[in-house]
Amino acid sequence: MNIIFFGTPDFSVPTLQALSQMPGTRIGAVITQPDKPSGRGGEVRSPPVKTAALELGIPVFQPHSLRKEFDSLRSKLEQYGPFDVGVVIAFGQILPRDVLNFPAKGCINIHASLLPRWRGAAPIQRAIEAGDDRTGVCLMSMDEGLDTGPVFSCAEVPISAEETARSLHDTLATVGASLLVKDLPVILSGVMQASPQPLQGVTYASKVSGDECKIDWSKSASVVKRAVQAFSPHPGAFTVWQGKRLKVFKTREVSRATGSERPPGTILESSGDLLIVQCGERSHLALEEIQVEGKKRMSIRDFLRGSAIPTGSCLGV
Fold first, then answer.
1. Of 135, 132, 115, which Cα lies nearest the Cα of 199?
2. Distance, CA of 227 to CA of 241 (rounded, Å)
3. What are phi and psi of 119, to 5 degrees?
4. Which tens digit of pLDDT belongs to each residue from 44-102?
5. Confidence (pTM)
6. Which residues contact 71 (CB under 8 A, 6 or more apart)?
7. Residues 6+ away with beta carbon under 8 Å from 101
8. For residues 289 and 236, is the Cβ–Cβ distance under 8 A?
9. pLDDT in tens, 253-277
10. How far does Cα 241 stand from its chain's mean position?
11. d(CA 15, CA 84)
12. CB 275 within 8 A of CB 265
């Protein structure tokens, strides 16, 4: 079985590695996104999939636009084919029809949700943000729509109360790799058939924008807590304090008998390891792990040792 693999971020790496160790399987080529500047210094870095593929000795191709460049890329890829199937996981570009049809048996996508819920770019973050109690991964036969293809199989994963985007990302990456290794042979043999997605229950997971990561303290403490976890560690939920961004990575809901009449964002207690903030609906949130702009990530106890946020002051202003 000769596979052409499409993927870019670290979420794709466990699947690439699992396929490389699968008996009777060869990854003939990997297509990933181009190297890009990253970090404050603008250092050009390779995508994690490229690094992993080169370590495995697999040829790598990095088109800026697969749609525009596939005609010229095809002849290069044919040197490593013919390909039986394409495996796509978090590639980052829409695959046009001629690419989907390039492998003999089409392309299979590993999608990080229980379709049709959370089609789109950010299914992990949106599931946590919405308060879903479960999610999962699906193996889907790809068509030209946005995660609209028929589904072969799914694996369900619970979402814990303290789940962050990073922890759920890591779990789903592993679960997706295992599901593909288990089901790919029976899919390609024709024993397992894909079923159309239900028309009911469709939701879309839009890409997370920087602006929506600003904490709205007028929301309830539970809503703010979920947003913090959904955007942790990247891009990071944030508020403003003394004109600087203050990223929030970990919180917990607390109960207080007084202070609920104060405006949202007001600091109700600031001492020891407690920094309690007034939220909407007469609810309260204790910040536990933060990062002030220009400084390292730290616990509230460590932060309050060196900084003072007076009780009665207001975050987000």
1. 115
2. 19
3. -70, 150
4. 999 999 999 999 999 999 999 999 999 999 999 999 989 999 999 999 999 999 999 99
5. 0.94
6. none
7. none
8. no
9. 998 766 667 899 999 999 889 999 9
10. 28
11. 17
12. no
